[in-house]
Amino acid sequence: LIDLHIHGVNGHDTMDASFEALNGMSNYLARQGVTSFLAATVTAGMDKILGAVENIANCRQQGLHGARLLGAYIEGPYLNPENSGAHCKDCLRELDSLEIEAILAKAGGNVRVFALAPEKENAIPVIQGLTGRGIKVALGHSSATYGETNRAIETGASIAVHTFNGMGGLHHREPGIVGAVLNSGKIMAELIADGVHVAFPVIEIL
Asked: How far is residue 197 from each of residues 98, 166, 192, measured CA to CA in Å?
């Protein structure tokens, strides 16, 4: 098993920015049969995000004792405040190429997935820049239209962040981001399949 999107587990959190946190996650996941994982950040002040990704880079170099750390999954702060979910709404912001470069530099080549809301200004050139470096772009925490989402997918975005959660809903006249994800064969749809975040009948539709 590979966990591509995990923020923390068993009292440990990626944003703790410590070896102990990621090693604790690594050991716990290995006991559950998970062989490797991406450590996901959450929206916070830029100093905290930079500290978390630098720690991921250091832990990758040092090595953990359980499941293998594959790299970083950046979730936030470039999300839509209307769909912030558990993210700090006051910390959300517009896409900033200098900030993104700082995140990538601190991560030392260890960012594997970068999430953003595709309706953000300059989303298309940002997606082009990230995918050009071999980084997967994930779409989520978004109220994007069907067209905005499709443009992002055609540009190279290839993951939908926990589909249905933190997204504008599916309407028969306004299919939106959910409709675009369901209708595309070019994007992998994440899902929190616990029957709580998404009801089981909806899981079956997906």
From this structure: 34, 10, 6
pTM: 0.96
Helix (H), strand (E), coil (C) string for 137-159: EEECCECCCHHHHHHHHHHCCCE
Structure-token match 């916070």, residue found: 44
Long-range contacts of 89-96 (CB under 8 A, 24+ apart): 91/43, 91/44, 91/45, 92/43, 94/120, 94/121, 94/122, 95/120, 95/121, 95/122, 95/123, 95/126
Q: Which 3 state secondary structure label does DSSP give 172?
A: coil
pLDDT tens figures, 108-123: 999 999 999 999 999 9
Q: How many CB atoms lie within 10 A of CB 200?
A: 10
Is 176 in a helix, a strand, or coil?
A: helix
